Amino acid sequence: MLESLFMRSRKGQAAIEYLMNYAWAIALIIIVGVAIFGLNIGGIRNSLTAQSSQISQAGEQISVIGYKCDSNGNVTVSIQNNGAGLAKSIAVGVVPNSSTGYGLGEPAGVVSSNGTLACASTSLFPAQTTTCITGGPIKQICASKVGQTYTLMVNLSYIDDTTGITFKPVRNFTGILQSA
Asked: How many other CB atoms sit within 10 Å of the CB of residue 137?
């Protein structure tokens, strides 16, 4: 009886020694990971949020899968049809978020004053993607210096061909200004 009690305490001691040897390593890895994310080393925070496909809400057929604002003021937005049917009459517009302090300003080139983007395709079949770009720079729509943070409001409009319903979702996106 005494011998089995002694064996249990050895197993317990071995388990505690194992935890003491490796728990500090696990804790160190967690602390380093939090520090990297908190300091945004390597842009990890933006890669997890800015270009994420979870930008669209559940039930929406069209989602923004990528976007970019460059130092010349050009805006590029990539969209994808995640639905089961055709999405038609697709229109994409961008408006700067007023909280960033960057206003739409006077557009240059062929861009209309409402920030409408020209899409390569205005109809998308399921799983198809298209890219929408400004026809020229829109002054002050992006941050003024490379590396600065900007926030854009993207307005989508499309018709679900199956139901005939027009959807007009609006999303805010935050990113870091890239060089042209």
From this structure: 19
Q: Cβ–Cβ contacts within 10 Å for residue 64, how many?
A: 22
Residue 64 to residue 82: CA distance in whole angstroms: 10
Task: Report the SS3 class of residue 96.
Answer: strand
Query: Which of 46, 89, 42 has its CA nearest to residue 67?
Result: 46
Q: In the numeric block, which tokens belong to residue 11? A: 């197993």
The burial class, CB within 10 Å (0-12 / 13-18 / 19+), for 25 is exposed
In a domain, 64, yes or no: yes
Q: Count Cβ atoms within 10 A of the Cβ of residue 65 and give its class: 0-12 exposed, 13-18 middle, 19 or more buried.
A: middle
Say whether both 28 and 60 belong to one domain: no
pLDDT tens track for 45-61:
655 444 444 444 556 78
